[in-house]
Amino acid sequence: MDLNADLGEGFGHWTLTDDDALLDCVTSANVACGFHAGDASVMRRVCDTAAARGVRIGAQVAYRDLAGFGRRSMDVPPAELTAEVAYQIGALRVFAEAAGSTVAYVKPHGALYNRAVWDDDQAAAVVEGVRLAGGDLAVLGLPGSRLLVHAAAAGLVAVEEAFADRAYTPQGTLVPRSEPGAVLHDEDEVVRRSVGMAVDRGVTGVDGSRIPVAARSLCVHGDTPGAAALARRVRAALEAAGVAVRAFA
Fold first, then answer.
1. Are 56 and 28 in contact (CB under 8 A)?
2. What percent of the chain has pLDDT over 70?
3. pLDDT higher than threshold 80 for residue 224
4. Which residue among 69, 124, 200, 204 is the one 20 to 30 A from 42 at the CA level?
5. Do 42 and 67 contact (CB within 8 A), yes or no?
6. Which residues pair with 30 in a beta bridge?
7. CA terminus-to-terminus distance, the chain
8. Is the sign of the CA dihedral 172, 174, 178, 183 positive or negative?
9. Averaged pLDDT for residues 171-187
10. Is the pLDDT of residue 92 over 90?
11. How wide is the angle at C-alpha 140 spanned by C-alphas 210 and 83, nearest 5°?
12. Cα distance between residue 230 and residue 234, in whole Å
């Protein structure tokens, strides 16, 4: 199981994620590319550290929404979104390659991630942006999402992702952050669910139903308080359960 986290979500003097601590335990780093968070200095620093520690680098692309942290739904014309996705990947690629690594995958952030679950036009625009940026890039997304359907159809590697610290609806989608209980804060529960998703391939939804989970990557949100300590606990529990924690193939 791959273990990923959102990193580089700072801007100027403002910091949010404990990048150094998280890079000690994750296998893939979703690096903010400047549209919802992150700036040139932050991107460069995270890429340097990730490369030095052998952590795979991914571009976390988003709507252009610094004020809303990329979590506000936006109606961006597909052609514009395609260009903006390619732009973000290109910006991060400069720093990844300067660090001796590369951008290996793309994961949408926030509102764009959730929109690409069901919106064919937005999902196709993201995939076209990945293709425009060039390179054999994998795409991370929710199982069954339109994003992964379009990625596979375009010949890209589609990687199913699960979330350690988010509640699930009976349909297998994420409970919107606007609803109570959308983000899980009980560390013991998060650890138990993480092992369950990796070993038993399932998770309990908010209604108590059992939801099948077919995922190759598990996300721990970097902006959750105590995220680094939680990620360490999740990794230790996975390994104790016999799960090999490594970047997805």
1. yes
2. 100
3. no
4. 124
5. no
6. 6, 58
7. 10
8. positive
9. 91
10. yes
11. 140
12. 6
Both tokens assigned to 248? 């997805």
Produce one character per residue of 155-189: b if its CB has 16 or more CB atoms within 10 Å, e if not.
Answer: ebbbbbbbbbbbbbbeebbbbeeeeeebbbeeeee
Q: Is 40 exposed, middle or buried (0-12, 13-18, 19+ CB in 10 A)?
A: exposed
> Beta partners for 166?
183
161 touches 142 (CB < 8 A): yes
Q: Which two tokens stand for residue 18?
A: 């404990």
Token pair recorded at residue 36: 């919802």
CA-to-CA separations, 167 to 41, 46, 150, 177, 202, in angstroms, rounded: 33, 28, 25, 9, 13
Which whole-number Å values give the CA distances from 126 to 59, 217, 246, in the listed order?
A: 12, 20, 26
Place of tokens 């606990």: 233
Pair of tokens at residue 121: 């036009």
Place of tokens 């893939």: 28
How many other CB atoms are there within 10 angstroms of residue 196's CB atom? 16
Strand-strand pairing, 202-204 and 210-212: antiparallel
**Residue carrying structure tokens 């908010």:** 206
Region 165-176 average pLDDT: 93
- Residue 182's alpha-carbon distances to 38, 43, 131, 169, in angstroms, are 25, 28, 33, 10
Q: What is the largest CA-CA distance in the chain?
A: 48
Handedness of CA 161, 166, 171, 175 (dihedral sign): negative
